[in-house]
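PROTEIN DESIGN WORKSHEET
SECTION A - STRUCTURE
LENGTH: 633
C-ALPHA CELLS:
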C-alpha cells in the first residue's frame, strides 16, 4: 500500500496538530541538509507554520524537496505569508478533518502530477524507442533493441524473445531467439518449441492476448500451461512476476512473443536470491502493461519492416548474382572472374578498414559501403553484354571459320599448282611426244614438291601467328610477306595464302585482338556505367556505377575510359583494379593464355606500382594480406 508522507521541520509547532492525523497520513521530520527519500510509489506533502517556523529554513526545505505540494498554516491574515508557492493556506486553528482532507488532496495532487510527468516521460521514451526501432535495419540488432528497451520501460530484471517460424515441411513453431538477465548469467542457446497451450509463450502466440502473472510459481487453477523451472533451478534464479505479450502486425498476425520477468521496485536492484526477489519484485502495474503492449506493437511493425528489407536485399542479391552468372555465361572462359574479384576486393577493403597505420588510419567503411563495393565489384564487367560475342570470346587472332577459309584457300592453291603441272605434262606430250618427257617430268614434279612445301610452311606460319602469344619482333615481317608471295595457278592467276587484312591481324604482336576489337572490349566500362546508372540505387548504394566505371583507370592517367589521375579515382576502384589484374593474371580458365604463378603475378603488379599506375600502399596491404589464399576453392 503506498504511503502518504507529511514532511515537517524538526521542532516545528505543526507537530502538535500532526499527532492527531489519521493513520493513513504518516508525519516525518525532514532530515537536515539531506534529500529525503521515500519509495517511488509513495507520495508526500510539506506542512509548515508561517508564524512558528523560520522562514529561511522553510525556503531551504521547500527548495530541497522541490515538486512536493506545500501546505501553510497561517493566522487570520494570509497576506502575511512568505512568498512561497503553496498548494493551500489553512487558517489557524484548523479542524483536524479539514487538515487531513487538505493533506490527502495535496498527496493525491502530488501523485497525479508525478504520474502525468511519468506518462509524459514514458511517451517521449516510447517515441524515441519507436524512432530507433524504425531506423534499425539489422534484424539481430533490432531484436536486442526491442528486448532491452522493453525491459527498461517496465523495470524488468529479465526477459526473452521468441520468433514465429513457418518451415516449409512442418507446422508453425516458436524459436527461442534471445534472452537477457541483469542478475544472473544466462547460458543461452537457441531452440524451437511447438506453438501450443502447454508453454507460456505458445499460449500467448496462439491467443494473441497479453498474459500477466503476479507469481509464475502460483498459477491459477485450470491454467493450461506450466512454467518450465529448469532455468531457475540450474542458475539459482526465481521467476516471479511475468508479463508476456504477443508481437502482432497491424493485420493481426503474431510474428513473435515478448516475455518480461520480475518487475523490480528499483531499477538497479540485483535479484541474486529468492529473498531479494520476494523483497524487490512487484506485479507489473497497469501503466507498464500498457507501455509494453504499445512497444510490442511498434516492435512487430519494425521487425516486419526489417524482414521485408532483408527479403528485398536477398532478392536484389539474387538478381545481382543471376546477372553476373548470365554475363559470364556469354564468356565461359572467364567464368567466376567477377565473383573472385569481388572476394579479393572486399577482403582488401576489410584490411584497409582494420588498418591502424598510415595512410589508412582514418579510413573506415560502413557495412553499407562494403555492400556497395561488393556490388560494384560483382558488376564491374556487366557492360560486356554490349560487346559482340565473337569479340568477347575471341581466343585467337582469327576466328575458326576464318582460319578454315585460309586452309581451303591453301588447298585450292595446291590443286591449282597440281593442275598446272598436269597441264604442262599433257601439253608436252601433245606437242613433243615422249621425247625428253621423263627428264622434264622429274623437274616439274620437283618444282611442284617445292611449291607445295612452301605452301605448307606458309600455312604453318599462319597457324603459329594465329596464337595470342607474344611474337618475336621480326615475326610480323614474315607474316606480312605471306600477303605478297603469290602462287600462280594453271589459269595464270596469282594467289596469296593470306590477304593484306589477314596479314595485319596475324601480325598483332601480343594477344588476339585488333585495335578496333580492343577498343570494343574497352567500351564495356562505359556500357557498365550506362547500364548500372539506369538502376534506381538506394542512397547508400548510389556510387556503384561510378566505382565500377573507374576500375580500369590508372594513377598516371594512362587508363580508360576517362584518363583519370591519382585522387580522381575512388579508392574503392583502386582496390578493384589490383584485384582485377591479379585474377586476370592467375586465372587458369583463359584459353588464350596460361595461368602464371602468384609470385610472377605479384612481380607484374609491383612493376605497375613502380610505373606509377596502381596504388602502392594498397598493393603492399594486398601482398601482406594474401587474400587469394582465403578464397573458397
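SECTION B - SEQUENCE
RESIDUE ASSIGNMENT:
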Amino acid at each position: 500500500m503506498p504511503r502518504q508522507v507529511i514532511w515537517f521541520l524538526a521542532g516545528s509547532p505543526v507537530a502538535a496538530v500532526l499527532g492527531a492525523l489519521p493513520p493513513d497520513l504518516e508525519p516525518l521530520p525532514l532530515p537536515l541538509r539531506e534529500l529525503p527519500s521515500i519509495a517511488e510509489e509513495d507520495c508526500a506533502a510539506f506542512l509548515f507554520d508561517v508564524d512558528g517556523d523560520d522562514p529561511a529554513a522553510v525556503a531551504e526545505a521547500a527548495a530541497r524537496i522541490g515538486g512536493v505540494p506545500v501546505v501553510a498554516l497561517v493566522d487570520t491574515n494570509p497576506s502575511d505569508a512568505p512568498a512561497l508557492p503553496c498548494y493551500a493556506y489553512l487558517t489557524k486553528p484548523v479542524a483536524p478533518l479539514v487538515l487531513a482532507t487538505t493533506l490527502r488532496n495535496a498527496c493525491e495532487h502530488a501523485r497525479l502530477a508525478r504520474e502525468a510527468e511519468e506518462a509524459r516521460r514514458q511517451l517521449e521514451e516510447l517515441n524515441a524507442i519507436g524512432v530507433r526501432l524504425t531506423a534499425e535495419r539489422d534484424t539481430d540488432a533490432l531484436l536486442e533493441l526491442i528486448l532491452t528497451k522493453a525491459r527498461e520501460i517496465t523495470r524488468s530484471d529479465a526477459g526473452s524473445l521468441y520468433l514465429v517460424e513457418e518451415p516449409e515441411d512442418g507446422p508453425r513453431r516458436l524459436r527461442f531467439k534471445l534472452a537477457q538477465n541483469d542478475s544472473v548469467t544466462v547460458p543461452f542457446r537457441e531452440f524451437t518449441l511447438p506453438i501450443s497451450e502447454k508453454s507460456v509463450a505458445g499460449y500467448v502466440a496462439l491467443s494473441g492476448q497479453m498474459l500477466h502473472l503476479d507469481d509464475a510459481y502460483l498459477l491459477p487453477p485450470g491454467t493450461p500451461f506450466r512454467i518450465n523451472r529448469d532455468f531457475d533451478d540450474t542458475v539459482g534464479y526465481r521467476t516471479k512476476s511475468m508479463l508476456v505479450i504477443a508481437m502482432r502486425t497491424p493485420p493481426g498476425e503474431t510474428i513473435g512473443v515478448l516475455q518480461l520477468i520480475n518487475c523490480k521496485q528499483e531499477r538497479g536492484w540485483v535479484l541474486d536470491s529468492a529473498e531479494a526477489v520476494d523483497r524487490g519484485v512487484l506485479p507489473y502495474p497497469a501503466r507498464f502493461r500498457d507501455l509494453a503492449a504499445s512497444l510490442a506493437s511498434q516492435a512487430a511493425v519494425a521487425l516486419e519492416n526489417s524482414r521485408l528489407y532483408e527479403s528485398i536485399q536477398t532478392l536484389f542479391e539474387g538478381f545481382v548474382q543471376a546477372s553476373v552468372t548470365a554475363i559470364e555465361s556469354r564468356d565461359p572462359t572467364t567464368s567466376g572472374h567477377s565473383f573472385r574479384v569481388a572476394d579479393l576486393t572486399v577482403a582488401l577493403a576489410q584490411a584497409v578498414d582494420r588498418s591502424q597505420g598510415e595512410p589508412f588510419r582514418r579510413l573506415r567503411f560502413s557495412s553499407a559501403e562494403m555492400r556497395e563495393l561488393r556490388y560494384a565489384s560483382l558488376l564491374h564487367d556487366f557492360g560486356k553484354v554490349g560487346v559482340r560475342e565473337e569479340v568477347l570470346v575471341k581466343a585467337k587472332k582469327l576466328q575458326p571459320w576464318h582460319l578454315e577459309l585460309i586452309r581451303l584457300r591453301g588447298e585450292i592453291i595446291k590443286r591449282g599448282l597440281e593442275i598446272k603441272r598436269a597441264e604442262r605434262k599433257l601439253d608436252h606430250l601433245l606437242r613433243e611426244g615422249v621425247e625428253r618427257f621423263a627428264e622434264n617430268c622429274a623437274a616439274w614434279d620437283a618444282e611442284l614438291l617445292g611449291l607445295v612445301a612452301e605452301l605448307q610452311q606458309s600455312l604453318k606460319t599462319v597457324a603459329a601467328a594465329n596464337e595470342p602469344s607474344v611474337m618475336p619482333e621480326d615475326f610480323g615481317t614474315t607474316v606480312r610477306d605471306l600477303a605478297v608471295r603469290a602462287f600462280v595457278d594453271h589459269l595464270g592467276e596469282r594467289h596469296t595464302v593470306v590477304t593484306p587484312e589477314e596479314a595485319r591481324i596475324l601480325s598483332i604482336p601480343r594477344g588476339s585482338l585488333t585495335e578496333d576489337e580492343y577498343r570494343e572490349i574497352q567500351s564495356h566500362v562505359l556500357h557498365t556505367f550506362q547500364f548500372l546508372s539506369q538502376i534506381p540505387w538506394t542512397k547508400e548504394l548510389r556510387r556503384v556505377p561510378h566505382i565500377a566505371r573507374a576500375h580500369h583507370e590508372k594513377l598516371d592517367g594512362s587508363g580508360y575510359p576517362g584518363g583519370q589521375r591519382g585522387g580522381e579515382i575512388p579508392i574503392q576502384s583502386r582496390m578493384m583494379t589490383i584485384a582485377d589484374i591479379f585474377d586476370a593474371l592467375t586465372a587458369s580458365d583463359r584459353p588464350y593464355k596460361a595461368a602464371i604463378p602468384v609470385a610472377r603475378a605479384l612481380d607484374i603488379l609491383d612493376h605497375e606500382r613502380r610505373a606509377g599506375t596502381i596504388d602502392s600502399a594498397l598493393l603492399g596491404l594486398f601482398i601482406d594480406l594474401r587474400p587469394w589464399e582465403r578464397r573458397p576453392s
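SECTION C - NOTES
The longest strand covers residues 254-264.
The chain has a mean pLDDT of 87.
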